[in-house]
Design a protein that fits this description.
mainly beta; 14% helix; 43% strand
């Protein structure tokens, strides 16, 4: 009998502990949910106030607004579906505060028509990570950038329609989506505002652009330090472009320079440049400009597969200007149209191993 009582007491105590633990977990979960503050904004001033909140937040834009260029912090989600946001002097950017992709984290922007015709960058992220831009309609001056990623990683741009508007010269090479290296020449304002430690040749990693329509002087470009020899050995790593419709009006539709672990699949890529003798008239252009460093051998690859491509001098070119090469380049299942003729449609080099098969070439 004594044993039974003791056993009953232990069972009651154990049950009490379990219930208390479950209650504590539930309280913590509720507290965590409460930490995410919700903002419903109907004006620019309310939008600025919401952005200033330092904690985790969701900002829902409920009316069409006109904003000035302003700063965005970590842990911010903006929902702008169905709204028009006029941004004559740019939209959002972050301050450079930390290295190692730590200046801004966990940013998501969903929907909205974001409009500008000025020669400024609308969305600029520097030394950031975990950034998602989804289902946005962005209009930007053709001499500027709709989206500029300077030394960022883990970025997803999905379902966006991006268009450069206005006029530019036949030699214009400004891209609407810029994947950039951080150097004094490529990011001068970053150096002047935040210091030289933020422009030491840091590059981008794991950038995904999918299901987008992009039109500009250049469409999409991964940049390199063309005028700074010591940074030409710096490479982006993990660039994916899938199921997009990309147009370059005066230069390449898609140019990925000093980029490794590249995947270009299922896109429609068209360059309308009249300079058919120039590299800028290539439709899809991959190019190594420096000696590869800091990239694992397994990542020194490029895959260009199942695309429809139109270009001037070439439709698709993979090339190295140095002794460094891709370990493997795969070019398969593409339909390549070239103004110079079908025999010039593909120029595939700069690789230790090449797999080039199942492509169809045409004179355009």
């Amino acid at each position: 009998m004594v044993y039974a009582k003791n056993k009953y007491a232990r069972m009651v105590l154990l049950l009490t502990i379990v219930v208390a633990f479950a209650f504590a977990l539930g309280f913590q979960s509720e507290a965590k949910a409460d930490d995410e503050k919700q903002f419903n904004v109907d004006s620019a001033s309310e939008f600025y106030d919401a952005l200033d909140y330092k904690g985790e937040k969701v900002i829902k834009i409920r009316k069409n607004i006109k904003i000035r260029q302003t700063y965005i912090n970590s842990n911010t989600k903006i929902i702008a579906t169905g709204r028009t946001i006029s941004c004559p002097n740019g939209a959002l950017r972050n301050a450079a505060k930390k290295l190692n992709y730590g200046s801004v984290k966990d940013v998501e922007i969903v929907g909205g028509t974001w409009k500008s015709s000025h020669r400024l960058t609308l969305f600029q992220f520097v030394h950031g990570s975990d950034i998602e831009l989804k289902n946005m309609n962005i209009t930007c001056g053709i001499k500027g950038h709709a989206i500029e990623l300077i030394a960022c990683k883990d970025v997803e741009i999905n379902g966006c329609k991006i268009k450069g508007v206005g006029s530019c010269s036949k030699s214009c090479k400004e891209e609407q989506i810029q994947i950039d290296i951080a150097t004094p020449r490529t990011a001068p304002t970053v150096k002047s505002y935040y210091g030289s430690k933020y422009t030491k040749g840091q590059t981008c990693r794991d950038i995904e652009i999918e299901n987008c329509t992009v039109s500009g002087a250049r469409g999409i470009c991964a940049n390199y330090a063309s005028k700074e020899n010591k940074y030409k050995k710096k490479f982006h790593n993990g660039i994916t472009v899938k199921n997009c419709n990309i147009t370059g009006k005066t230069s390449e539709a898609l140019a990925l320079f000093n980029s490794m672990d590249v995947e270009v699949k299922g896109n429609t890529i068209k360059t309308k440049s009249s300079r058919t003798g120039a590299a800028e008239s290539i439709g899809c252009h991959l190019h190594i400009f420096g000696k590869i460093s800091g990239i694992k051998n397994a990542d020194r690859t490029a895959v260009i597969k199942n695309n429809k491509v139109w270009g001037g001098r070439q439709a698709i070119q993979v090339y190295s200007k140095t002794s460094s090469k891709y370990n493997k380049v795969t070019v398969t299942g593409n339909k390549a149209h070239c103004k110079k003729g079908s025999g010039s449609a593909l120029k595939i080099g700069g690789a230790k191993k090449k797999v080039v098969r199942g492509n169809k070439t045409y004179k355009w």
